[in-house]
Amino acid sequence: MIIILPKLGRIVTVQIFIYMISITKHHQSSNDLVIDTNLIRRYDQSGPRYTSYPTADRFVEAYTAETHEQTLSQRPLRDGNAPISLYVHLPFCDTICFYCGCNKITTRDHGRSAKYLRYLAREAALTASKMSGLRRVEQLHLGGGTPTFLSSEELTDLMQMLSQHFELASGEYSVEIDPRTAGAEKIATLAKLGFNRISIGVQDFDPAVQKAVNRIQSEEETVAVIDAARRNGMTSINIDLIYGLPKQHVIGFSHTLDRVIALKPDRIALYSYAHLPTAFRPQRRILSADLPTAEAKLQIMLLAIRRLTNAGYIYIGMDHFALPHDSLAQAARKGLLHRNFQGYSTQPDCDLVALGISSISKIGPSYSQNVRTLNEYYDCLDRGVLPTMRGIELTADDLLRRCVIQSLMCQFELSVEAIEEAYLVDFKQYFKTEIAALDTLQKDGLIEWDGAWITVTPRGRIMVRAVAMIFDRHLQHDRQRATFSKLI
């Protein structure tokens, strides 16, 4: 048994579009995380990560640029004065990491990034012109690709451009960092531009693993970035790790954990490598024979959880850990976590405006995704059209289930009363089929269900995706639409 998640209150948040109500749970349950390896093996199936519901494989091309334009124009009908979150996808990398499943473009030609920034400015202007209501940004994230592929001057130009079309207020400004492309001067520039949180890709310090995935990155480069971030007053530093990579083993990953824990980042993301070479071409360069066995991968994960929690990190959920002082851990204690396309978030639910190729926006009861290639992106903007490729308008059922899944994923519990008051449904009747399916989870010890609350137990928290999947109507009706990663 691993003690990792003390909670001060039992709070569940229920969403109706961007409105939230909270009910305090009086029943108290164990705050321990219990590792049951037999249960993990039994439930280690493929499933969504639920950064959205419905998941992106359910988006349809019938949702067009015109549909997205109309959605943007209708924001005041919901709450046009609410702040927004802004995401910018910067796809360029100067080298390719074989494990990567992101939409990226490998190049060393900064002429390509310069052109892309010009078109980003067009999209930002076009999007802003279609939006009604305030455009106050309190959460900003630069993702990729490699955002630090851009020079300090390009990053400065990007932020100046964004400020012309959006009100960049104080808040959480985060950026993904590749230490190989981010020296002290660039970190200082990011801090001056308002960035206060960085996420550093490490994956593994083992030289054999780095060579196998084509990401040679010294510990010294990583330390230099962290030191520079702290000198420049950044308040939260995250390190990304991946388990299940080729050439990886328990002893080697333990050495990596030694070094990471010594660096004391505020947050750690511990991702499971999903080997899907048919979906991601770079992964075809990884030899299947070099991958750890399923049992070895499980042991690496268990080692990491034990080491991180013993070092004082709080298990937030899924693959996120944070030190007690970090805002993510504080949000978890207060029951205020939210989940979006960047994972767990401390910010309340709000409209997400996304710019750049393949990026996904969430505006009220809808999602929309941009085209995936540069040529398509440039062509749309040359024609003065939003570069929307597909999307979905959520039904009343989708909104209800999104709320249920969010609550389970973020708070590990669900109040039946809150759902019934918010959505005017008889929970037990509406979810009659799902409740029957929950019986097995309860017998296996993943959940507790007393008719008033569904609570993910300490034993079930690592497998919370399996609980959420019960309420995924799209997945239950059609499990063949997309290839998902395994839960572990």
Count the beta strands: 23
Estimate the mean pLDDT confidence: 90
Note poorly predicted spans: 1-24, 26-31
- The neighbouring-strand order within the major sheet is 13-14-12-11-10-9-8-5-17
Content of β-strand: 15-25%
What overall geometry do the principal axes of the alpha carbons give? Answer: globular
Radius of gyration based on Cα positions: 22 Å
Helices and strands: which structural class?
Answer: alpha/beta
Largest sheet: 9 strands, mixed
Oligomer: single chain
Give a brief outline of the structure.
The chain is built from 17 helices and 23 strands. It has 488 residues and is of the alpha/beta class.
Describe what you observe in this structure.
With 488 residues, this protein is of the alpha/beta class. It is 37% helix and 22% strand. It contains 17 helices and 23 strands. It has helices at 37-43, 65-73, 110-130, 152-165, 184-192, 207-213, 219-231, 250-263, 294-310, 327-334, 374-382, 396-411, 416-423, 427-430, 432-443, 464-469, 473-477; strands at residues 2-3, 11-16, 19-24, 32-33, 84-90, 92-93, 105-106, 136-144, 167-177, 197-203, 236-243, 267-272, 314-317, 320-322, 338-340, 343-345, 352-355, 360-362, 366-370, 388-393, 413-415, 447-449, 453-456. Strands 13-14-12-11-10-9-8-5-17 form a nine-stranded mixed beta sheet, with helices on both faces. A three-stranded antiparallel beta sheet has the order 18-19-20, covered by helices on one side. A three-stranded antiparallel beta sheet has the order 21-23-22. The longest helix has 21 residues, at 110-130.
